[in-house]
Amino acid sequence: MQEFTIEELAKFDGKDGHEAYVAVDGKVYDVTGNPHWQGGEHHGNLAGHDVTKALEVSPHGTRVLAGLKQVGVLK
């Protein structure tokens, strides 16, 4: 499993042809191609970032992670 630093994760912002990754609880997920993450953004949250806190208060919670591919972990 690939390890990412926060700086490395930031490169996966979903912009200019980059893949879109987000971190949640130390795990990194691929949201590239997810219709809710077009342009690397979802309800003010940005790909390339740790979105753990935002997910904790979202109405859908962590159940959305089940449909995402884990591509790595945060160092």
Give an overview in words.
The chain is an alpha+beta fold. It has one domain (2-74): Flavocytochrome B2, Chain A, domain 1 (Roll), CATH 3.10.120.10. Helix content is 13%, strand content 28%. It has helices at residues 6-9, 52-57, and strands spanning 2-4, 21-24, 27-30, 41-42, 45-46, 69-74. The strands form two sheets. A four-stranded mixed beta sheet has the order 1-6-3-2. It has a two-stranded antiparallel sheet with strand order 4-5. Strand 4 (41-42) and strand 5 form a beta hairpin. It is globular. The mean pLDDT is 95.
**Most strands sheet:** 4 strands, mixed
Tell how many strands the DSSP assignment holds: 6
Secondary-structure content class: alpha+beta
Rg over alpha carbons: 11 Å
**Arrangement of strands in the largest sheet:** 1-6-3-2
Share of residues in strands: 25-35%
Low-confidence sequence ranges = none
Question: How much helix, percentage-wise, in residues?
Answer: 10-25%
Quick tags:
75 residues, single chain, two-stranded antiparallel sheet, alpha+beta, four-stranded mixed sheet, Flavocytochrome B2, Chain A, domain 1, Putative steroid-binding protein 3, globular, 6 strands, Cyt_B5-like_heme/steroid_sf, Cyt_B5-like_heme/steroid-bd, 2 helices
Explain briefly what this protein structure is.
The chain is α+β, with helices and mostly antiparallel strands. It has helices at 6-9, 52-57, and strands spanning 2-4, 21-24, 27-30, 41-42, 45-46, 69-74.
